[in-house]
Design brief:
alpha/beta, binds N,N-dimethyl-L-histidine, 40% helix
Length: 334
Amino acid sequence: SQLHPVLDAPTAHETEAPDLADAVWRGLTQSPKQLSSRFFYDDEGSRLFSEIMHLPEYYLTRCEYEILDTYKTDLLTLFSADNRPFDLVELGAGDGLKTKLLLNHFWNEQANFTYTPVDISKAALDGLVADITQQWPTMAVNPQHDDYFNTLKRLGDRANTDGNNTRLVVLFLGSNIGNFSPTEAVDFYRQIARHLNPGDLVLTGFDLQKHPAIIHAAYNDSQGLTRAFNLNLLRRLNRELGADFDLAAFDHYETYNPENGEARSYLVSEKEQLVKLAALNLSVQFSPGEVIHTEVSRKFSRAGVEHLAQQSGFALTNWFTDGKAYFADVVYQK
Ligand code: AVI
């Protein structure tokens, strides 16, 4: 294995800007209005999300941390079964807090593995790699500044062709899958499945359905961080698209529907107003109380998680939950 982290040259990828302009134009000219939660994560949005993860009401991160801590030995046994080396490929690694718990354990157990964080944010990736190399200077780290599926294709092909016997273990933590629609989720796992080989694994964090009040509070925290996170999207449009959203004239509103497990976030116009987006040459009229839908955070049932595996060509092999069964980290096998 490598003695030093391999810092691959960043691969060419599209900047987010054209995508943002296009999506915002479509989202604000349709009814009901809509903006995608993928645009939350500019520098300030990423910083706010890191703070949200420490909120008392935002149980998701703590629950997942507890699961990974409790079952790290079981996970290593699964990942390294048959004495095969494994490549831990983390999709959307972020600050890697929970992953570092696993890395620390795998390192102490002298496991034969490489860590491959994948992110389209160069800044996030650089920060994570700097952090990891500081803690474990000789760990094999192979950061990929690229699209998830380009990366998986390359890794899957390599595992196929050079006869190396490395197992790919894809990590998708934090209930990021909850921000996808049901169709997008199936599509996502089907694409992953296409690049994996038999015996490869995917470990996903799913936030589970529970008392609606607990979920509702997680997206309506008392410190107003979730509100700031949601409103920051408008600040981003002001900066990047020359818009003139008055942040004081919009409110944060969230609903949770226990019948379908969907937490939905909205920005609400407090009054009749006209907003201009100079870069789009667009003016958008809002009536009082009119909403922009910004995010869905889906909560899963066990049946839903099993169904997702079946629909996308995986077998669900392990189900790990925290003490309160609020959250599950689930292993799918190709
Ligand atoms: C990143 N994602 C899983 C978070 C969630 O819970 O849907 C984003 C978030 N939105 C509001 N609070 C946190």
